[in-house]
Description:
Blueprint: H1 3-30, E1 132-144, H2 145-151, E2 157-158, E3 161-169, E4 174-176, E5 183-192, E6 194-195, E7 198-199, H3 202-218, E8 221-224, H4 228-244, E9 248-255, H5 262-271, E10 275-276, E11 282-285, E12 296-299, H6 302-305, E13 317-323, H7 333-348, E14 350-353, H8 365-381, H9 389-394
Antiparallel strand pairs: 1-5, 1-8, 2-3, 3-4, 3-5, 6-7, 9-13, 9-14, 10-11, 11-12, 12-13
Amino acid sequence: MSTLQISLAVIGVVLLALIVAYNAWTTHRNQPKKARPVEDDPRAEPALRQEPAFDAALGAPPVARGSAAPPRTPVASAAPGAPAPEELPGADFAPPDRTAEAAASAAAPDAPVPAAPTHVADRRPGLDPLIDAIAALQCEHAIPGESALAALPPTRRVGSKPFAIEGFNETTQQWEMPTPGERYHLFQAGVQLANRVGALNDIEFSEFVHKAQAFADSISASIDFPDMVNEVLRARELDQFASEHDAQLAFMLRARQAAWSAGYLQQNAARLGFVQGAIPGRMLLPAPTPGLPPLLGLSFDTQAALAEDLEQSAVRELMLSLDVAQVHRTEQPFARLREIAAVLCNVMDGVLCDQNGQPLPAMAMDPIATDLELLYDQLDGRELSAGSVLARRLFS
């Protein structure tokens, strides 16, 4: 074999080795990024192991609005057609009792997200003439709470609207759900005028009258109903206002190059305070005050979240969402969404996009923030402040 042949053979072997090495490097580079073990990750903070029950009592996502009114759309054009989040607490007249405390993992030390101030709603979670049609009941004799409870209808809904009956506690001078051991002379029955499904209609009002009358007959009480025409008109006006002031924002974070594994995504979200929801692929940023709706939502592919090995699943995008009416403005939820999006884009090598996958420059977020402040002012002026009990009921 000549020297030339030997040289060509060596060169061929070297080129082949380089090609194999390059292919191996490319394959490794394009593999989904995996979560680091906590002990090996210098950015890791003590992780939260408790899983609060935010989603447990949320129910299914709101149904699309019917023909009575057009579907509510986000106030900001940067995120058109945002997906409706899970139904939030406050859809019925009283928020669910939660004993599990909501907590959050510490944020990444290189980009902390400041804690938001807490807020407690200033109105009681019962019937309110601002968003309810209310019928007054009066009894000749005091009715025990046990008898009132036994006479309640089996369901707490009229069509698609929440329905409730309350008794007036003369000791506390407060309206309340009938309670064993108490006695009541006065009751009130009410049905919500509107929610995200639409306005109270004639059929639903008639069903409300039927249920309330049956309760009144059971306890031998007289009942005074409001005028149906007036209440239906009020419902339509309230629904129109709600439709024009309902903002559900969603933004996409898309991987620039290598995909993320579901475990890698969850690990980075947990560092910013997100916790697992009851729905696979759904994470929530809890409110500082236990019992209030989550501040933000984070969602990704459900199939990836259900994979047997989270490190082998590939996710190329996630959604950050904010249901504006459910969170009080003092929590600064949109500012927190922007900060969290910036941190995730930096740490996970992603790019912020609108829901159609079009990249969003940082300056595009400023007009949205301005529009939201105007929206908050309009809700305040209607006594339906974002995050209040009434707002959470109306926008559900």
